[in-house]
Amino acid sequence: MLTDDELRQIMPNCAAAKRQDYLPFIQQAMQEFGITSYLRETAFLAQLAHESGELRYMEELASGSAYEGRADLGNTQPGDGKRYKGRGPIQLTGRANYTKYGQLLGLDLVNNPTIAATKEVGFRIAGEFWKLNGLNELADQQKFESITRRINGGINGLQDRIMYYERAKRVMSRDDNDGVNAAVTAATGAAALGQTDSSGQTQACPNPYLRQGSRGDGVRSMQQRLKDLGYNVSVDGDFGPGTNAAVVACQQKNGLGCDGVVGPRTWAALWAD
Fold first, then answer.
1. Domain assignment present for 179
2. What is the pTM of this model?
3. Which of 171, 200, 215 is the endpoint of a domain?
């Protein structure tokens, strides 16, 4: 798993306080979207470094007025250009993309576009984009220029991107990824791997992480735990809007990112008592 020291070496111009603030959310996004091998991690971090100016920019500097009326971006309503300007480390742009990625992530980005620029949401958008566009597979094949074309639409800044890529490959260890359990342990401690419920049965943190749209025994176990903690939720194994609201409330109570995703830290908080 990516460490603070590795991130510092890859993006040396990123302020230490910002780097440490963003790191857990970058780690979570990489885990959630399968960016968990040496080749995937190095390609992702290189593109992220270039696109965000080493995490300096989470929102486009321009007003977005240049996108007004751009039907190709889905900007069909007055004010859409500024409303759906580029946000997040890969600059999500246009009503159509805000709609698409909001639906994929179970978030209302159309009515709350500014959250795309937050650390809690922005890195998840980047991870979702990466996975959805087949960039993990291209990274596995070391087709870095092809990755650039899918992100940029061309090869703008290719040499800068390659510089970060080569730097990341020197910095990152090929042994960083020892599997999901090792990553979970590093993120939350051994307790997140196996919490014990009232019956004495071990409840392991699910992988992939639970989110709106998930179904199954892991969801049912989580819902039962939420209900035991006093949240108003049905125990039906279906992660719907009601369950999402309960998860967000729990995250807020425990000082976590309120994104509705049940990863290691949220799971650990659920089973802490």
1. no
2. 0.65
3. 171
